[in-house]
Structures are given as structure tokens and as C-alpha cells.
Amino acid sequence: MSIHRDGPVSPLFRPISFDGNFSFEELAGHQDVSAELAQAAPFAHSGSCVAWGIPFEIGRPIFLKDQAVTVEISPTAARWFVFLHASDVRPLSPDQNGLISPMRGIGQLGEHAADYILIYDDGSEERVKIRRRHQVGSFVSRWGEQCAEAVPAIMPRPLSFRATNQPEWRTDPAGHRRPIGWGVRQQQLIFEDSRVPWINFIWAVENPHPERAVEAFRFEPVCGALVVSAVSAGDTCSTPLRWEKRKKVLLQTRSELTFDPALNEHSLLDQIQLDLGQVIAARPRLVYPTEEWQETRQNLQPKTASHEVLVEYTAHEDAEFHLQGGTRIAIRDLESRSSENEPVLEPIERADQRVSLRVVEAGTNNVVPVKLHVHGKMGEYLAPVDRSRNPNPLWFENYSPDFCHGNHLSTYISGAATIDLPLGEVYLEITKGFEIKPIRKTVTITRDTTQISVEIDKTLYWREDGWVTADTHVHFLSPATAMLEGAAEGVNVINLLASQWGELMTNVGDFDGHTTFGTKAAGGTGEFLVRVGTENRQHVLGHISLLGYSGNMILPLCSGGPDESAMGDPVDVLLTEWAQQCRTQGGLVVLPHFPDPRLENAATIVLGEADAVEMTSSSDLYGGINPYSLSDWYRYLNNGYLIPAVAGTDKMSAEFAVGIMRTYARIPGDREFTYETWMDAVRAGHTFVTTGPLMDFNVDGRPMGSRVTLPSSGGAVSVSWKAASVVIPMTRIDLVVNGEVKESHTLRPGQDAGIWSVRIQKSSWIALLVRAKYNDKPEMIAAHSSPIMIDVEGSQFFAAVDALTILDQIEGAMAYIDTIGTRAEVNRYKQMRLLLESAHRRLHNRMHQMGFDHTHTVGTHLSEHD
Questions:
Q1: pLDDT per residue over 642-657, tens digit each?
Q2: Global pTM value
Q3: What distance, in Å, lies between the first and last C-alpha atoms of the chain?
Q4: I need a labelling partner for 21 at 20 to 30 A (CA). Which of 90, 164, 375, 543 fits?
Q5: How far apart are CA 846 and CA 503, in angstroms?
Q6: Does residue 536 sit in the same domain as residue 659?
């Protein structure tokens, strides 16, 4: 037996003591109870308990079966008497065919179990009928058979999905405490009535004569057995078991709040509690720039107030807040309470005005998918009714179409949403990709507001010029959710990648080897497409994204053991072999989050089996394109390997937004946009990657991805470029030749264009990069083009130092499978070793042809290995 306290005690209630006719120990061996009750009795609550804010003193309970039981109490006058009781299980009586009639369910709904009689000090009585699944429930119940007029004695409580350092617990049927798994935590609440060995029910009866004192209770059985554990008396204006709709208040304190983000919001929940109710969430108030809202930038993270907490709760109207330090504040007194020395609770306007929100395209009035953020005057996030009010940003723990940029929360909508808003001013942010100017506006909500329409207008027209956008790297979403998020972010192609994570397989059921979701043939518009491919991975050799291939899934998805494949898996396939198989099946091979993991991708590029390298943003909106990635890519360009750039987010949680860094690829005007023509555009190299600015350039009229030929004497080439941005102010454009910046031009923030004449004397590659900067962030490389290769007759692309580092990587891959990599079957191992040897030999021979002598590494030539 244990003491149960699920919150502070309401001062409106006091426990009533009585001496029952049995102890729980005696019940465990009683012949008139079921075997199930006898087994569960040791787990029943006892002592000074609190349930739903109501105090109970549980001593010797009343066992009610065949005879009436009367208990005397101290004379008590109260409006409500609250009983803590439970019914023994009631066996069913099926017929010879196993069917039950009359069918009341296991809980025997409506069966008259007993009468409870209130005996007043003047000798008068009031009788109340007790029916099963109305006033009392079984101590162990079937799921779906709750009571109609009583509640389980264990109050529902909030959970946090952020409980990573401090696990939360629940009690299993055997009475043991178990950590709560992440799946359950997604609910952000828990109701343990079916997870404990013994559950009591709380039922409140309104005393028809509150002016009279009750001096005894008589319990008369009708059928079956009941256990009455305790009684409490109190005075509330209505039944104490019915809470009101969810509300919010602002807690203002004189001292700085004690809040440890590592321990999630429970460090705040411990500081503010309710008696006849429950605090749902307590978080520091977010402060947005209200007056300058329409002039601020998209995805702006709010500041956090150090002395204010936004508290969401549900409670009885007579409930009181209990604050750390002993202060109590009644909900009824919130409007009038004010103090300079004590904490203050300020009511926040309830979000109860249901509004239809429509985002439409200018000129057509058609609804369009967008990313939406709405907050109230206290910074409270206001989500549509079918979206999470508190999205989970953790890895593989959220499947709702949300975006969590720190404390700035957004969701994706199809263009129409239903949302409950508070009266007064609310603040909207609506974004859609890089060609539409973000919208931030303030709207005043009144009782007459039933619909809000927002019109968005395109500013840049790259799509109309044949450019399509893509995210080459997305995980975990369903195809339908991926399509919604892509359309809302203005991303035409989402590559949703199945993969393996130890023993976990993700999105494998979405792969069929032929379907492109969103095509007209599949019932879509053909403008926003989702294709399921695979990311095949090895934790040392590297990762490789296999996009758009047809036929069977390329397996294994991962190899070589943790932390990509399962423990004990051998290294039985190379990245390059995966790439070759993908190409055989008509797919596009991308080296993701280039260059990491940084090893075998060198051999894949040298052997010509990769179609593109991927620049990745992950969840960082302000890091831009990483110079580390560019530096690695430049090594291959310097040695003549024309491999275009693409971009993907590697989205694995709500902290990532699809397309935050994206690929732009241009499809020729005489070809229709399809997934296949998009792959062809990437293979052709007419691409650039960007976190906002758009760009294009050519050399003597030849587009990105081209090869231009000059005579041995070289010559001047004309580099024409243009750049534009509506989401981030541009600062500078750089001309990169063979990895070095040769020209720079300060850019107008919105649009600019220019021409450079560049003298070329040896074989060179040319690319452009655009720098940009938010006012409150450092400057970043925000966009980068794929290169144009210029072949000068008699001059070969060769950079000896870079070639040597590439050779080192290939040798590293060979060393790995030779030594610590879990060895595959002998013939398989030798085949992989030969493939790496061929890449090594190809580059090594070329280095010697160019007259570059270097030290040979031991073990780089095939030998007899066991």
C-alpha cells in the first residue's frame, strides 16, 4: 500500500475519518472477494492521500458485500461529499455459445450496486443509488469502460517530450515504476488509470441539505462487492470533479525565475501548481518586437522574459494556484489581485474565437500551401486546431508538419486552416520559399471575425524561367506530409530517403521503386513531387544518396555496424558499388552532406560514379554554405572532375525545414518538368545551391555545368551574371576561379547584375558565390553555383597537392576494410578491395603522367589477404 498525492490540497475540502470493517491486509485473504481483488489489495492507496486536489484519510476501508455497514463521523455540514471507492470485478455469464445477454459489458453498466445513505443529526436521511460505471467503477477495468459520473482517482498529468536528462515514470500493472517511452511522451499527457494494480474512483454527491450536519453514513449492498476507502467533504460552487476549458495566465515574479532548460519545463511546473485542476504547461514568456512586427524578418527568434512565465491550465472555477514559497492565488481573484511584493497572475485572453484562415495567390484567389506562424500579445504560439500546440523538435519524435526554429514555432498548411484566436491583436507570419516576399502582419480579432484572408504575391520569377527547386535529403516524413511541406516552402522536388539506423528501418514501406507522388498521373498537380529513394550508409566509408532509381530497393541499406547499421554487420558493400547499382537502375547518385563521412567518396568521384555533391544546412538557418564543404569540393574541381552541387537539409526532426538550403536546377524550355527531367538537369550541372539568394551566370553564353574550349593561347571570356533575393539582403558576389576569389562586387540587397571579362591562360573552372547577411547575424555564403569548366588546349586540370589528398582518402578506405572493418566473406572482400585499387590506380597513374612524384603507401597494391 502507498500514499498517493497528485497535487496540492484545496482548502475547500477536509477529509472525514471513519473506522471501517476490514483492513486491506484482511481483504487480501477474504473469501468473499475475487482472486483479482485479493491480489491487488496490497497495492491500494492508504494514509493521507490527495486526489484531484481533494484530501482523503485512508485507514480501515469499508467492505460492502452482504450486510449494510454504518459508520459514524464527526458532524459535518458541507455542500459536497466526495467518496473514494471501487467495485470488485463482476463475472459475466455467457450462454452455451459464449454469448452474453443482457450485455452490460464487463463493467456492468448501470447495474445497481448499492445505496449510500446520508444520516443527519436531526435523524433524517437521504438515499443515493450507486450504479456501476456511473458512480463507481471496478478497481481494474476494461479499456473503454470509464465511469459516467466518477473519475479515476489518479489525475491526468502533463508529460514533457524534452525529458532527456530526467526521465519520467509511470507505474506498471505490477506496481513497479517504469520510465515512460518516447512514443507515449508525444501525447504530452498521461492518464494512468489502466496501468496500476488498483484504481479507486472519485464520486461527488451534492448534499440537498447543506445547512444540516451529517453525522453518519450507511452503506447498503445490492449486488456484488464494493470497497469504500475514504470520504471527504467540501464546499465548491459546482461539482469539484468538472474542470473548465483550457486557459492561460501570465505569472510575473519579483525575482528571476529558476528555470533549467536541461531539465525541461518541469523545473517550472514544480514552482506553480493547482489544487482542483492541473497545470498543462509552464514556460518563460516569449517577447516579440510587437511594434516593429511588420518590419522584422522571417523566422526571428523571440527573446525570453526572465521574470514572466506563461502558464496554461485547466481547473475548477474554485481552484487555487499554489506558488513556490507558500503563496496561494484563487482563480476567482486573478483580475483583482495586485502586489508589489508578491507574484502576480494576469489572465490572458482565451483563444476561443474560431476563425477560418485562407492564404491565396494574388490574381487568382486560389489557396496556396504556406508556412504559418501566429502568436498572441503575450507571445503565446497559436496553432491551428489540427496542429500541435507544442511541437516536438527532437530526432525522429515528431510527424506533424511543424517547424521549430528554437522558440519560434510554425506549421505548414495547405492554404486553409481553422484556428482559435484570442480577441485583440494577433501576429501572423506567412512564408513560401525564396521567390515570394515573406508576410508579417498584425490582425485585430473581434467577435465578428470569422475569416482572415491573406494574399501573397510573387516577387521573383525563376520558376517561370525553367528553374525548379529541390531538397535532395529528407527523412522520416510520410510522402503526403513531405509534399505539403515542400509545396508550403516552394520546393518542387522532395527526395524522401529510406534508410537504416541500427535495428531501425525508416520509410522503407514508402519505397516501391516506381511511384513519384504528386504527378498528374498520380492525381497531383505535377508541380510538387515526392520521390522515395534511399540513403545507404557506412559510418567510416561514408554515406550515399540514391535518388529516383527504379526497381528493387538497393540493399543492404547500411553496412559495417554501428552507428549506421546493426551491431555485427560486416563491411560487405562499398559506396561506389551502391552508386553503380543506382545508375544501372536509372537513378541519380548524390554524395550527401558533403564531404562527411569523409573517406570513400573520393574513390566514387575518381571512378566517375557520382552525379553531384550535396551542400547541407541541417537545422542551421544562419550558417550558410560551409566553407569546409566548399574547400573539399574545390579539390575535385581543381583536378578536372566536373561534379555539380546540389543542396539538401538532411531533415530528421521538426528543427529542420525542408528546403532551407535548396537546389535550383534549370530545365530547358522545350522540356516539361518531371522528376526525370529534373534528374537530367542535375546531371547536366545547370544548378546552384542557396539559402535565399537566386543567381545565374554564363561564360560566353554557356550555362553552368558546361565545358568551354579555348586554344592553347587561352583568351578572355565574358562572365555574365545576375542575382536577386527577397528573403535575405545580399552583400557581395565573388568570382571563383580554380578555388580562388578573382573578382568581387558589392551587391544591391534586392537585385543586381553584371559582366566580368576574365583572362584564362590554363584550364580553369569558374563559379560564383553570393554572400548575404541578416542585420542581426554574421555574413554568410548564401548561394553558390555549379562550375563552368574551361579547357585550354594542351593544359590539363591538375592540382598536385589536392590530388595527393584525394589519393590519401582512397588509401584510407583500403586500410579500413583491410584492418578494423568487420570482414565480409573472402571473395566479397577481395572484390571490394579490387574496386578501391582501380580508383587508386587511376589517380595514381595520372599523377605520374603529370610528373608528380610522391611517396607510396605500404599496402596499396593487391596482395593475398585472408
A1: 999 999 999 999 999 9
A2: 0.91
A3: 64
A4: 90
A5: 42
A6: yes
